[in-house]
Write a structure and sequence with these properties.
The protein is α/β, with parallel strands linked by helices. Helices cover 35% and strands 28% of the residues. It has a seven-stranded mixed beta sheet with strand order 3-2-1-4-5-7-6.
């Protein structure tokens, strides 16, 4: 693939593909379960194309700060941004170094983003930093299936998959990573994807409080 074709693929096709796939019903059902529980000052890491915006409860959210490094994805979010009726700020930055003050967030939301963040451990440390001591992390993620042929398959195709899916990793273990980063998990649910989406492995949803 030439440099020009690669730029077109990464800058246009991949963002559009990710936006379309992640807007599907299976993903939306989990967003609907978790995102409306966000309240106060909310930081969303991996804001992307703004797919979570439709699920925030305007009566609970004072300010939403969306953080994402991908300019193409942020462009896709513009129409959704204009439809919200709460204070919204969008920052072009990576989750590993968010230009946000320490201890300001009541809620951090991460949805289908820990799979793509290049350094998820650093990002989770940032989530702890920006959260108030009483704050919580709400997460909606996909990850590896343990002790199954599916887990082996996820490991096998992980690298080529990432090349066509915006850096998505199929074989990370989000609940484990969150716990190892110093959070106490609660309301944790693990569910398999439908058979035709088996490569995504497990759905993980829940809350986490810094400890």
């Amino acid at each position: 693939m030439t440099s020009t074709n690669r730029n077109v693929f990464d800058g246009r096709f991949v963002p559009a593909l990710v936006n379309t796939v992640c807007a599907g019903r299976t993903f939306s059902d989990r967003r609907r379960r978790v995102v409306p529980r966000a309240e106060g000052v909310v930081v969303e890491a991996g804001f992307g194309s703004g797919l979570n915006l439709a699920y925030y409860d305007p009566a609970k959210v004072d300010t939403l700060i969306g953080v994402d490094p991908d300019e193409a994805m942020l462009r896709l979010s513009e129409a959704r941004q204009s439809a919200v009726d709460f204070d919204l700020q969008v920052i072009k930055a990576g989750a590993e170094a968010m230009p946000i003050e320490t201890g300001v967030a009541d809620t951090v939301v991460v949805a289908y983003s820990l799979c793509t963040i290049p350094e998820p451990e650093r990002a989770l440390a940032e989530f702890r930093r920006v959260l108030k001591p009483s704050g919580r992390l709400l997460f909606v993620e996909h990850g590896r299936v343990d002790k199954s042929w599916c887990g082996w398959f996820q490991d096998t195709i992980n690298r080529p998959w990432g090349r066509i899916a915006g850096g998505c990793n199929l074989n990370r273990c989000p609940a484990h990573m969150i716990k190892e980063a110093g959070f106490a998990l609660s309301n944790l649910r693990a569910e398999r994807f439908p058979a035709y989406m088996f490569q995504f492995g497990m759905h993980w949803t829940g809350d986490a409080k810094p400890i």
